[in-house]
Amino acid sequence: MKLFIDTADINEIREANKIGVLDGVTTNPTLAARTGRDFKSVAAEILREVDGPVSLEVLSLDTAGMVREARETAKLGDNVVVKIPMTVDGLKAVRELDADDVKTNVTLVFSASQAVLAAKAGATYVSPFVGRLDDISEDGMALVEQIIRIYENYGYDSEVIVASIRNPMHFVKAALIGADVCTLPFSVIKQLSQHPLTDIGMARFLEDWKKVPK
Ligand code: G3P
User: Fold this and answer.
1) Is 83 a catalytic residue?
2) Helical ranges in the chain per DSSP H
3) Tens digits of per-residue pLDDT, 181-194?
4) Measuring from each residue's beta carbon to the nearest atom of ligand 1, which residues come in under 6 Å?
5) pTM for the whole thing?
6) Catalytic one among 40, 83, 120, 214?
7) What pLDDT is recorded for position 56?
């Protein structure tokens, strides 16, 4: 399973990159706003830092506007993936962009029917938001299971990015289900490596080492 970081914060991206497990980056307008910086320079920095796919979102609501923005955005680098909202206009834009070999990530996916349409339109990636479904007492990971089963049934090529991750169990369940990608906030990436028994074990080893005759 590929691991993406879900942030626009270049420092978090650099830190995650140093660990050596980072396969790509996803951003969105909320994450861009959190940086408090001009997003063009932020995007350029991210693209310099990361070789893998970097999702950058369009803001137009109509197909023509989305396609225009997407083509401009795609010029920023070979690894740019254009994030397109899951709307009818978005699907039309994905179809056009796919014909031009512009990679797309259909975002704000909350149902299996939306995921089927995105795949049929030619989306490179499809992003179900599991945390936001859990937040309203639905089962986000059950949706991921449905999408993967449907994609397998019909051999759709779109890769599933499990997004809106809230905790390490979302990551583990995504891996068990066989999702292509998980995109995680930096806080959750750090949690993945932690276990109290690892810390206790290390402390005990260091204590015992003091008793070894030197
Ligand atoms: O990648 C989409 C993700 O950023 C949404 O996360 O936590 O705002 O639901 P969240």
Assistant:
1) yes
2) 10-19, 29-35, 39-49, 63-74, 88-99, 112-121, 130-135, 140-154, 168-177, 186-192, 196-210
3) 999 999 999 999 99
4) 6, 26, 28, 127, 129, 131-132, 163-164, 183
5) 0.96
6) 83
7) 98
